[in-house]
Structure formats: C-alpha cells, structure tokens
Amino acid sequence: MAERTAEILCIGTEILMGDIVNTNAAYIAKELAVLGICVYHQSVVGDNPDRLRESLDLAFSRADIVITTGGLGPTYDDLSKETIAAWFGRKLTLHQPSLDQIQRYFEKSGRTMTPNNRKQAMMPEGAIIFDNPNGTAPGCAIQQDGKTAIMLPGPPREMKPMFDNWVVPLLMKEQKQTLLSHNLHFYGIGESSLEDLLRDMMEKGCNPTIAPYAKTGEVMLRVTARADTAADAEALMAPALAAIKEKAGAYLYGVDVGDLQTAAVRALAEKGLEAAVAESCTGGYLAKRLTEVSGSSAVFQCGVVTYSNQMKAKLLGVPEELLQQYGAVSAQVAEAMAAGVRRLSGAPIGVAVTGNAGPAASEGKPVGEVWLAIDSDWYRETVPLQFFRHDQDAREYIRYLAASRGLHLIWKAACCCPSPQEGERHA
Fold this sequence. Notes:
Blueprint: E1 5-11, H1 13-16, H2 24-34, E2 38-45, H3 49-62, E3 65-69, H4 80-87, E4 92-94, H5 96-109, E5 122-124, E6 128-130, E7 139-144, E8 147-152, H6 156-172, E9 178-187, H7 191-204, E10 209-215, E11 218-227, H8 230-248, E12 252-255, H9 260-271, E13 275-279, H10 285-291, E14 300-305, H11 309-316, H12 320-326, H13 331-345, E15 349-355, E16 369-375, E17 381-386, H14 394-416
Parallel strand pairs: 1-2, 1-3, 3-8, 13-14, 13-15
Antiparallel strand pairs: 4-5, 6-7, 7-8, 9-11, 9-12, 10-11, 15-16, 16-17
Helix pairs in contact: 2-6, 3-4, 7-8, 9-14, 10-14
C-alpha cells in the first residue's frame, strides 16, 4: 500500500503575529503518526484568501490530505470554508442541522445568536459534516480526485474532540498501517554523547527508526516502527529498545513518561514516598514543576522559599556559623537546608537548592554557581553545578536547569529506596 501523507495548515493572522501559540499542529501531527499517516510539512497562513489558495496549491502538490484549523468563525475574515470549497469547485449551501445546533448552543448559553453566525452553517456541497457540541463552528471534509481536505475549528477545546470523534474514524477507513513510537528520556548526557553511543543503530535503523531530540538540559530519543498492527510495531521496536537500554540505560529516566517532574512524582508514588523542597535561587521553580503533575498532592509535602540568609536560619535551622563561614551558596548550606526542610515537613526526602542566578556575583560566588543536596535515610548526595552563560536569559536558564537537577535527584532517591514490600513503607 502506498504511503499516505498529510499536511497541516493552520490559518490565522494571530498565529503569524505570535499572539497565540500554535498547539494544534503538534496535537494533529502526533495523532496522525499513530494512524500511520506521515506529515512532512506544516504551514501557517494568515486570514487572506489569496495566500490561502497559494498554500492549498502547494500543500496538495505534495500531500494527499490537508488538514486546516481556524477560519471557520462568523466574521468577515473567516474565509477557510469559502476558499477551500472554491478550490474544489464547490458551492456553499445551508446545512440546516448545523444551523439548528448553533441555535441550540446559543440558547443553552443564554446568549442571542446574531445573523452572522448563520454563515457558520454554510457548508460545501457534498461535504462530510462534523458537528461541534463545544462551539458554534462545525467542521467538514471534502474528498475528491484522491485528495482530502479536512477543516477544523481553531480553538483547541473544539478542535481536539472533533478530531478524535470525526477525523480519526474517517481516516481509519482507508488506513491499513500503524505508525507507533516510544519516547525515551535521558538526563545527564548530552545529545552528541548519546548519539555517539548509538550512532550505528541510528544510521542503520530503517524500521524502526531512532531520532534524537535535544531538550533544555536533557535528551529524548523517539523510536518509531511501522507495521500492520500495533502489536507488530511493538515487536519490531523491542530489540532496539533493549539495545538502547543496554548501551545508555545509566542515563535513562523513563519511557513515555513525558518529563522529569512526571517521572519524579511517579517514582515517589510507586514507593509510597513523600518529598519536601527548600529553595533559594530557584524561587519555587522546583515546587512549581512538581505540582504541575496530577497526583503530586499525594507525594509532595511542602516547598519553602528561603531567599534570605535570615529565613534560611529561622525557618530551616541553618546554623549562622555555616552561613558566615561558607556563604549561602555552598555545599554546607545546601546540606543544612535539605536536612532542615526534611525536619520541618516530616517527609522522608528533603531536597535543597541554593545558588547565584545572577546578574552579578554575590558573596564572592560567581553567577551560575549552584549547589543542590538531597537528604534521606537511604540516600544522600551533594551536587555542585556551574553554568557559564551570562546572556540576558541566563537567569531563567540557570533556574530551570537547577530545578531539573533537583527533580532528577528526587527521582533517583525514590528509585533506589527499598520498595514497600522489602522494607518499611514511608508515609
């Protein structure tokens, strides 16, 4: 069977201007990959019919399926349906079921429907109509001469359920193969070093393929296989996954886990553990990232931001002599902070971060010097970090990477803790 290709075309001047972040393309691309439909190009075009026609010409010259988002609203500049229908040589006609649903939507929300909303019920002749219970813009699809145009609304809360409920079944009717991926997350190794370890596998891999993606402070590998079924794809990937873990498993913190904070929260939950954090230079960034994860309330006791030396001593019990002798940015103070927040919270794991994120040297410590410490009955470690960036974004960069190291320490401590079945369960 010939490979099916799709192109994603997001419509909206507000996207081009940077007023909103285009999350739709990422969502659609991931879902198409699961269906085994390849995406080689993504584009953004403003609310201009001439440029939209040019974009359609280009997209259909290299793809079988073009999926658009945006431009289905009631205002004069919402011209996606009109332009795409004209590209296929089709007229717009009133679709009464869509008009009825739009009217019901306004009635439910207690608002008055204005005449221009009728425009949203005008659909290309012969189109497949997608209803929209989450908004006023129905979607639709046109299939003609081996080409498929799929039109979806722009707001993600409307686009995503429409894609799942209507577009996936439509595309699955003709799709016979599945493209399946696993994402492997690594910390403590750079992209070039990881590639060097796995170069032969990456160069020779065809099915499955192995692709590296550098992220801030970490690396992700995506292993992808194409097969008739998901089970067959899994079987193709299994040897590659095993080989990667054998060669680089020391740096692997999770498969399909998403990010460091999710991995840390899951590891704590699996062992029945709780953690507490004390922060200085990160200003709550470590606690913020932990609490971004659903379920973190079961494993995260508290976060204490002790920015001043006075609060380090008063809240965490850091001895004044340590602060005077070594300074706030030191191994000794980081260790005392970790022990202090553990004592304060009663959590079995205490983590601390203290450092100088800039913009100037402080207490004789250079910008970018950071110390982290983790305190528990079974695992203690003190970690020095030195970041040499001094540009205008250095402060945020240092804070983010310091928080990442703290998350990795939590994950590491949870993983090396005796399991609840083997020893005392921590609560």
